[in-house]
Write a structure and sequence with these properties.
The protein is α+β, with helices and mostly antiparallel strands and 657 residues long. 34% of the residues lie in helices and 23% in strands.
């Protein structure tokens, strides 16, 4: 059994690691999940300016990606709809209406040039063998922009999640330029579907965000017109919500018409009568997805092969530094190529002008030829750009006779001058890498595909999310009928408790110490041993102190516990009495009171204690011992704090009094 447990642990850890690193969580360097990176690489391999069937690209991607074609197809469609790197032709669906994309055989795609500018730099990209060893695929692309912030991402892995909203590309670029200079900046999401966003709890991408539809109020025609919707919501699902709210009487719509095309346009006609359009608008926000709060944002990325949660500003600062590193490596590689080219032009001139090629015409062996060329060139070593290597000699010996005979010294000098100029420019960029990085960002800003609307779409505003509770009118009298055990607002008999609404939550505490929270109903069976019924308002419950006395059935030891109920799950049964052989003997909800305990045996028959003598602890605490003697009777009287007598001072044995 031990071996089996270890085997399960090993396999689960391997599976978890695989899902996190190879499927669900994007890498910080290029912001892609592996399937997205493999799609981009496939399109780079195929890029000739032509459109390709999505089914074709899906099949080719399977050379790198060992999963089914459906995951590749879905990822490719999402990349096209994001609009930055892949251009689509055909029906790729509609994120506003929820319309799905056409089958892969009917739609086409190709890379935007922007994708190559941002991602493609093969000379400094690390490649590894594909899963079957037949091909090479990039570990990550050396991206010049944080694609994870441009496109946004959603990913779920065992025990973790990645949730990042899209951001405005021009704002991302400006923040990167500020980060390069070491300045401070703030950046907030810019959602493709627009709407109003409240970012007061955004916490640099690790908190929450409230999103509200933009709705025009047409008083003349008694209409609410939804112009922009929350990100992730479709007009189809929103209309279904509106229809459901209307059937429940929460909204008073007589017609709902969807005129959505490239922008949302849902017209809701409100019934004539006393219904205020402002109230109907509040009901729309409260009872549908026209307004929503997105919690638990999680900017988790793979950093150095490990999942790490980073703030959005941290991601931008990382990419500001990473961009400089990428550009420096590109410049260094280009510099080496330029030096090689300059060396070759210099050696060509010496080789031809000094007629070194004539010295090898009668030589027989390769060793003799190489030695003669090297000897002839070394006489002019002061003109070399770098040290002479065997590859230089090999390249000279490959020069065709025609090129030697038509050698133009003036053209050679112009080439050398141009190369010198380019080398100096390269070295200047390396010396002033920050300035160069900002100029690259400015150039990329101009290359953003026209499919991307670079104007800000989401309007930052301050508002409170309207909940059903905010609109609920508590005008129903809740009653408890002890004889039948029913609680409800439709009961004709019973004790009046408090006013509730249809969506109100109530806390029911039984005399045995068990409790649960449920929604107020017209008639609900709770039993005949109910101790308390309270509104399940967490602010109220934080101020309500429950005191419970419980006894061990075996040892007869009496325990006491004081606590507040602050957390619960609807309709789940809990207990104030700890697990074990305990039974509840007394329960109250007063801040102060006096307990009179009568014992079965002993010289002292009674003892009085005050509730405030015991600390208020968590609901899961085990309580403290009240007495070890067997209790015959418990008396209780509610008191005020000022009724409690002052504590008697301990006698001081060393006082002179």
């Amino acid at each position: 059994m031990q071996n089996l447990e270890e085997l399960f642990k090993k396999y689960y850890l391997e599976y978890t690691s695989y899902v996190v690193k190879d499927r669900a969580i994007p890498y910080i360097e290029d912001g892609f999940k592996p399937v997205q990176r493999r799609i981009i690489q496939t399109l780079i391999d195929s890029d000739n300016g032509s459109m390709y069937k999505v089914s074709d690209i899906t099949g080719r991607t399977m050379r790198y990606h060992p999963h089914g074609d459906s995951s590749i197809y879905e990822a490719l469609v999402n990349l096209v709809n994001a609009g930055y790197f892949i251009e689509g032709n055909g029906n790729f669906g509609n994120m506003l209406t929820g319309t799905e994309a056409a089958a892969a055989r009917y739609i086409e795609c190709r890379l935007y040039s922007f994708a190559k500018e941002v991602l493609y730099s093969p000379d400094i990209t690390e490649y590894v063998p594909s899963y079957d060893g037949k091909y090479k695929e990039p570990v990550v692309f050396p991206s010049k922009l944080p694609a994870v912030l441009l496109q946004g991402v959603m990913g779920i892995a065992p025990g973790m999640t990645c949730k990042i909203f899209p951001h405005n590309p021009l704002e991302v670029i400006e923040c990167m330029k500020t980060a390069i200079d070491g300045g401070d900046f703030q950046i907030f999401p810019d959602l493709p579907t627009g709407g109003l966003i409240d970012v007061s709890c955004y916490d640099d991408g690790k908190g929450e965000i409230s999103i509200r539809s933009k709705v025009d109020v047409d008083e003349k025609n008694r209409k609410l017109v939804v112009r922009e919707i929350p990100y992730g919501v479709t007009t189809e699902s929103l209309i279904a919500d509106i229809d459901s709210a209307t059937k429940k009487g929460k909204l008073h719509a007589v017609s709902i018409n969807d005129y959505t095309t490239k922008t949302a346009n849902i017209e809701i006609e409100i019934a004539k009568g006393d219904w205020s359009l402002d109230k109907e608008l509040e009901s729309l926000f409260a009872h549908t997805k026209a307004e929503m709060k997105v919690k638990d944002l999680s900017p988790m990325l793979i950093v150095n092969k490990h999942p790490v949660i980073m703030g959005i500003s941290e991601i931008i600062r990382f990419h500001a530094a990473y961009l400089q590193d990428v550009l420096r490596r590109e410049l260094e590689f280009d510099h080496g190529k330029l030096i090689d080219k300059m060396q070759m032009r210099t050696l060509e001139r010496i080789f031809i002008e000094e007629r070194i090629y004539k010295r090898i015409e009668t030589l027989r062996t390769q060793e003799e030829i190489d030695a003669q060329v090297r000897e002839g060139l070394m006489a002019f070593k002061d003109e070399f750009v770098r040290e002479l290597v065997d590859e230089d000699i090999e390249n000279l010996l490959k020069l065709p006779i025609r090129r030697i005979s038509l050698f133009d010294i003036e053209k050679n000098r112009k080439d050398v001058e141009e190369l010198n100029k380019t080398i100096k420019e390269n070295e200047d960029k390396q010396r002033h890498i920050k300035r160069y990085a900002k100029s690259v960002l400015d150039r990329l800003a101009k290359l953003i595909p026209k499919s991307i609307n670079t104007a800000r779409k989401s309007e930052i505003a301050s508002f409170s999310v309207i909940s059903v509770k905010d609109l609920a009118e508590e005008n129903l009298q809740l009653k408890y009928d002890r004889s039948s055990g029913y609680i409800g607002y439709a009961l004709k008999t019973g004790d009046d408790l408090f006013m509730v609404g249809e969506s109100s939550k109530i806390l029911i505490v039984l005399k045995d110490g068990t409790y649960h929270v449920t929604q107020a109903q017209d008639k609900y069976f709770a039993g005949k041993n109910v101790a308390f019924v309270l509104p399940a308002d967490k602010d109220l419950l934080r101020k309500t102190i429950f005191t419970i006395l419980f006894r061990s059935k075996s040892t007869k030891v009496m325990m006491i516990k004081r606590c507040c109920i602050t957390q619960f799950i609807m309709n789940r049964m809990y207990s104030l009495v700890p697990d074990g052989d305990f039974e509840a003997k007394f329960i109250c909800k007063d801040e102060e009171g006096r307990l009179t305990i009568e014992f079965k045996t002993g010289r002292i028959k009674t003892e009085q204690v005050w509730l405030s003598d015991f600390l208020v602890k968590g609901v899961s605490s085990q309580g403290v011992q009240l007495t070890r003697r067997e209790v015959e009777k418990i008396g209780y009287r509610k008191m005020n704090a000022e009724d409690k007598p002052p504590a008697t001072a301990e006698p001081d044995l060393f006082s002179n009094g």
